[in-house]
Amino acid sequence: MAQATTLPRNETGIETAIGVLKQRFGERLQTGRPIREQHGHTTTWIRNQPPDAVVFARSTEDVAEVVGVAAAHKAPVIAYGTGTSLEGHVNAPAGGISVDVSQMNKVLEVHAEDLDAVIQPGVTRKALNEELRDTGLFFPIDPGADASLGGMAATRASGTNAVRYGTMRDNVLSLEAVLPSGEIIRTGRRAKKSSAGYDLTRLLIGSEGTLGIITELTLKLHGIPEAMSSARCTFPAVDSACQAVITTIQMGVPVARIELLDADCVAAINAYSKLDLPVNPLLLLEFHGSVSEVAAQATAFGEIADEFGGMGFEWTSTPEERNRLWQARHDGYWALLASRPGKDTIATDVCVPISNLAEAVERSQNEARRLGLYSPILGHVGDGNFHNTVFFDKDNDDERAKCEHFVEWLADLAIELDGTVTGEHGIGQGKIAALSSELGTATEIMAAIKAALDPDNIMNPGKIVIPH
Fold first, then answer.
1. What's the rounded mean pLDDT across residues 115-139?
2. Taking a C-beta distance cutoff of 8 angstroms, is the pair 174, 187 a contact?
3. Which one, 230, 251, 411, 431, has least CB within 10 Å?
């Protein structure tokens, strides 16, 4: 569980760059401590490392100007959307300038006939779907927070719909970005496929602002299904719920969502969202398709659930009940925080091949229990991704040491089972060592790409890889 480290500061370069940018941006450049601290803080256990200034950009040209000035003076630049990341992505370990793109929040074009939209990076997932409401289309990627889509692309985020619709990697057609030099590039056009050269779109997706700042996205849209139904089913144990998930996926039941909550999560959600779900391991599901397809999917899952001891299987197509259930799931992290006031947490996000899911979950539960840690589990288990939310007292050295051991142990377990240390949160500051364990010398290639595009290491330094 690596903490944030402090990198060497270029005091003269930072001060000079801020002076130049203040003349250009006026009141849109802020240096007050509260604003700076807000832009160095995320929903995370990693300590706050605020930037020296914040510039509120309104256009690609604004971003390019900030980056160009920063590059000239070798001052760090950190992109900021809504600040909902979990691995210290927006921290400024070497100081520098935060580029806030939240005012770049326009849906520029919707091509309903082509199932795509062009947006600015500050548009949030909920705002985009509100804009699309009358078109019969939607954008499916839905992390727990109402994150900015630029940030979601930068961290290669996913969500509850990933089992059917994929992740951000699968739903971004092309990007516009500002490189560390201040140059503006486009990585592609609106075609649904292309064999034209290196795939720069995928290079930038998941780069966490270390190779460039995303200023425009062309996104793939999907038709709103004719019918949608949500379901819930409790199980006698987490293992039996996982076995039901594995069988559902292997039998090809095309679920749109399949989420696991252990009994501790269910209890927390009941208290937080005023529900009365049975306090047992729970699967929440959603089915999309025609009316007959949805009914067939629900029936197929019900038969699988029976095989593994599922109880109280219910499904509903009522929008109010569906929304209430999924809002409670999206609030799951906040519900857990509310259940242990005063405690710090770290939310892990390992992902393993679906056939290894039950083993990974069971072993993680056993290790947390052995260490005496409170570590509820929830996750997007349809693609093998689950979260242990580990609680600890930061002032209790023994408890903190146990938490650090558990997080490192869990990363090693994921790698042992041919999985990944991060399914959706990204590397940031918190998982740099784990990334090396997972990919070995491949991280040297990442460092070489970083050095080639950003030789002065000004773009979000201290994240993903540390250049030699």
1. 98
2. yes
3. 251
